[in-house]
Amino acid sequence: MSVPAHAAPHPETLSSRVQDATGESVFNCYQCGKCTAGCPLAAEMDYAPNQILRLLQLDLPEMVEEVLGAFSIWLCLTCETCAARCPQEVDLPRIMDYLRQESLRRGLVHPKAKDILAFHQAFLETIKLKTLHLLQDVLLAPKLMARGKLNPLPHGIAGKEAVRRIFERCGTGSLPVDSGATRVTETHPGDAEGSGT
Ligand code: SF4
Ligand code: SF4
Question: What pLDDT shows up at residue 160?
């Protein structure tokens, strides 16, 4: 949303950096509290979602550590409930995401959030492909092959001949007569018509 002229943030403040990074102005929030009322984790947070925005609106230097050191920003699930309820269309999850990055960058992560942070990092590791660093581990391949940890060929399986015979039988639609098994014949819709059964 656009920023009212009277509420434009100072270019050096945290609120201005939030706006540069996310396109969201914290000054669009008029503190109605609907975000907090719908947030599933508000009760566990040290600052409720609307309070995080209020701290940002204050734009005081001493509030920067308060916001970036808050446990709340790490509890946020990015569930979007707050954004869906907000009459001002403030994208709070996006702001929370930026605050986490900034908290990490400045070494202000809340001590209780260390486990959550470890989870975030493990998750990011699993989606490395999204960064398109597709060949970053390729130089490890020769070493892994030498140790038998990486095989470019597919594994063989036991009983290949038995599997081949199963496929052959499925292909003919019947089991061999000499197997002693019940004969299985392919049927089609309408086969039963006129059979009298
Ligand atoms: S719902 Fe929107 S306007 Fe209301 S307090 Fe939350 S962010 Fe601010
Ligand atoms: S996105 Fe975060 S702040 Fe918003 S409702 Fe969900 S958990 Fe709460």
Answer: 84
- Contacting residues for 17 by C-beta, under 8 A, at least 6 apart: 98, 102
Distance 98 CA to ligand 2 centre (A): 14
DSSP letters, 161-182, are: HHHHHHHHHHHHTS--GGG-SP
Which residue out of 55, 79, 95, 99 has the highest number of ligand 2 atoms within 8 Å of its CB and is therefore the one to mutate?
A: 79
Number of H helices, E strands in the chain: 10, 0
Q: Structure tokens of 17?
A: 């950096």
Which CATH number is associated with domain 5-131?
A: 1.10.1060
Contact 3, 19 (CB under 8 A): yes
**What confidence tier does 8 reach under pLDDT thresholds 50, 70, 90?**
low
What is the rounded distance in angstroms from the CA atom of residue 104 to the CA atom of residue 114? 11
Any ligand 2 atom below 6 A from CB of 93: yes
Mean pLDDT for 65-76 is 96
pTM for the full predicted model: 0.63
